[in-house]
Design brief:
By secondary structure, this protein is of the alpha+beta class. The chain has one domain (7-142). Helices cover 19% and strands 38% of the residues. The protein has helices at residues 7-15, 17-20, 127-136, 138-142; strands at residues 24-27, 30-35, 38-47, 51-60, 67-77, 80-86, 103-105, 114-116. Strands 1, 2, 3, 4, 5, 6, 7 and 8 form an eight-stranded antiparallel beta sheet that branches. It starts with 6 loop residues before the first helix and ends with a helix.
């Protein structure tokens, strides 16, 4: 269930992320209304370990509930893009059906190697899941 009933609710929540997650060194996230019922969230979260989460969300609230219409989340270590998530549908790829349209691009061929992305959603915030992944899972991946 989406806890955000308004753009203002989401805005307050977004700008409070650095206070709720100690691993966030700083945030450049900016939520901008682009129309009567359309907004975009852009920017990045930088972490104390040098990783960055680059965020793009396109948001709507047609029925009174805030929804993510589309997104892209990229994880970087320095100038190296490690992996990314997006909601671009790939209906012909049956391996992604379990989490359609949500998927993750991973090495070795990051552009074409896609895996399902359980936990991502269009009707609830994705950032806590991604922040948790960076805080807990990414250090093990980088050290390999």
């Amino acid at each position: 269930m989406n806890p955000f009933r308004s753009l203002r609710d989401y805005e307050v929540w977004i700008y409070g992320l650095p206070q709720r997650f100690s691993a966030i060194a700083y945030s450049t996230l900016l939520l901008a209304q682009r129309g009567r019922q359309l907004a975009e969230l852009t920017g990045e979260l930088a972490f104390s370990d040098g990783c960055r989460l680059v965020v793009y969300e396109r948001l709507t609230w047609d029925a009174g509930e805030l929804l993510i219409e589309g997104y892209g989340y990229e994880v970087w270590q320095g100038s190296n893009k490690l992996y990314w998530y997006d909601s671009q549908p790939h209906p012909a790829d049956s391996s992604l059906a379990s989490t359609y349209p949500h998927h993750k691009h991973i090495p070795p061929d990051v552009k074409h190697h896609r895996v399902p992305a359980p936990g991502l959603s269009l009707n609830q915030p994705n950032l806590p899941l991604l922040i948790d992944e960076i805080e807990h899972d990414l250090p093990n991946l980088i050290s390999r």
